[in-house]
Amino acid sequence: MESKELALRCAKILSDKIAQNLSVLYVREVTSLADYFVIATGNSTTHVKALADEVEFRLKQEEILPDHIEGHGTNSWIVLDYGSVVVHVFSEEAREFYDLERLWQDGQRISLDFE
User: Fold this and answer.
1) CA distances from 26 to 36, 45, 46, 73, 86 (A)
2) pLDDT for residue 72
3) If you average pLDDT over every residue of the chain, what do you get?
4) Which region among 26-30, 91-95, 99-103 has the lowest average model confidence (pLDDT)?
5) Count of helices and strands (H, E) across the chain
6) Interior CA angle at 53 toward 85 and 60, to 5°?
């Protein structure tokens, strides 16, 4: 699966689980960390965990496994690293604090047609 397709697949999974303030940023031109960042907000720590778990579960069914996962202990910011795509699931407070869209403002926001 290509990077953009994977990023949009992750975003669709999050959208289906009612993620808030969903965005996909193309960041390949501004960092070597990934091609895309998928950023979403959960409305509670339980929702944050459920969103991250759903992405991991659904992609695992397609035999796509993350290289690394961080944050399950806090449930305020969970990161799923799929190499070319990094999924960030935040609580509202953590998302405001880290403000990744501002930090990566030179990245290109990708339109989400399924919303």
Assistant:
1) 5, 27, 28, 28, 11
2) 82
3) 94
4) 99-103
5) 4, 6
6) 65
- 3-state SS of 6-61? HHHHHHHHHHHCCCEEEEEEECCCCCCCCCEEEEEEECCHHHHHHHHHHHHHHHHH
Residue 3, both tokens = 């990077």
Secondary structure element (H or E) that encloses residue 107, with its range:
none
pLDDT digits (tens, 9 = 90+) for 36-71: 999 999 999 999 999 999 999 999 999 999 999 999
Whole-number Å distance between alpha carbons of 82 and 50: 18
For position 82, what pLDDT does the model report?
A: 98
d(CA 60, CA 103): 30
Angle at which helix 3-16 crosses helix 45-61, to 10 degrees, equals: 130
The 10 Å Cβ neighbour count of residue 49 is 18
CA 59 – CA 65 distance, rounded (Å): 7
